[in-house]
Amino acid sequence: MEHVQDSILHPWTFHDYAFAARQLGIWHGTFLAGDPQPLEPWLCRDHIRGWLRGQSAEQGWDNPEISASFSREARTRHQALWADLEGFLSALNHVPQVFSL
Questions:
Q1: Euclidean distance between CA atoms 68 and 53, whole angstroms
Q2: Using CA atoms, how far apart are residues 98 and 27, in angstroms rounded to an integer?
Q3: Range of the domain at 90
Q4: 24-62 burial, b for 16+ CB within 10 Å, e for fewer?
Q5: What integer pLDDT is reported at residue 1 of this predicted model?
Q6: Of 34, 35, 33, 12, which Cα lies nearest the Cα of 101?
Q7: Does the CA dihedral 36-40-44-45 come out positive or negative?
Q8: Is there a domain that residue 14 lies in?
Q9: How far apart are CA 8 and CA 11, in angstroms?
Q10: Do 60 and 66 form a contact (C-beta atoms < 8 A)?
Q11: How many CB atoms lie within 10 A of CB 22?
Q12: What is the gyration radius of the CA atoms in the chain, in angstroms?
């Protein structure tokens, strides 16, 4: 994305964002309608798995601000979700991929 050059010479307005969102929606809709998704090697695949590589369910809980902001129940639920992380990531691999900024 750092190589994408903006042709708009002013800060984006609401209408600029609305136009971009509409164009992305149209692009995504073509794949939901059955068109094959592009296979270019520069398109990310399994992006979230890469973000989470090297992370753990316990990471961050030793931060006093985090531990003070969340209940023990929230931590337990977080650990339960993390325990099923592979299931969530596998499910994500079966839904249509989308362009994201």
A1: 26
A2: 9
A3: 60-101
A4: eeeeeeeeeeeeeeeeeeeeeeeeeeeeeeeeeeeeeee
A5: 58
A6: 12
A7: positive
A8: no
A9: 8
A10: yes
A11: 10
A12: 19
Average pLDDT over residues 82-97: 86
42 within domain boundaries: no
101 pLDDT higher than 80: no
Asked if 56 and 81 count as a contact pair (C-beta separation under 8 A), the reply is: no
Per the domain annotation, does 67 fall within a domain? yes
pTM, rounded to two decimals: 0.55
**Other C-beta atoms within 10 Å of 74: how many?**
10
| CA–CA dist 52, 66 (Å, integer) | 19
Phi, psi of 60 (to 5 degrees): 95, -25
> What's the total number of domains in the chain?
1
- Retrieve residue 27's tokens: 């692009």
Per-residue pLDDT band at 85 (split at 50, 70, 90): very high
Convert the pLDDT of each residue in 19-40 to its tens digit. 989 998 898 888 878 888 888 8
